[in-house]
Amino acid sequence: METQTASADRYAVVGNPVAHSLSPQIHRAFAEQSHQLVDYSAIELAPGDFERQLRELQEQGLKGVNVTIPFKRQAWEICDQRSPRADDAGAVNTLVFTEDGNIAGDNTDGVGLTRDLLNNHRALIGHRKILILGAGGAVRGVLAPLLALKPDNLTLANRTLEKAEILAEDFRHCGDFQVCGFNDLGRDKFDLIINATAAGLDNEVPPIPEDVLGINSICYDMMYDIHAPTAFVNWAQRCGASRAIDGLGMLVEQAAESFFIWRGVRVDTAEVIAALRP
Ligand code: ATR
Question: In this model, does residue 155 exceed pLDDT 70?
Answer without folding.
Answer: yes
